[in-house]
Amino acid sequence: MEIPITGFVVHSDDSNSNHSHKLFITSWDGRPVNVHVHPFKGNTSFDVGHYHHYAGVTQPAPSGVPHVHHYYAETSLNDQHTHIIRGTTGPAIQMAGGGHYHQFEGYTTVNGRIPHAHRYGGNTGDEEGYRYQSN
Question: Which of 89, 99, 127, 128 has the smallest CB count inside 10 Å?
Answer without folding.
Answer: 128
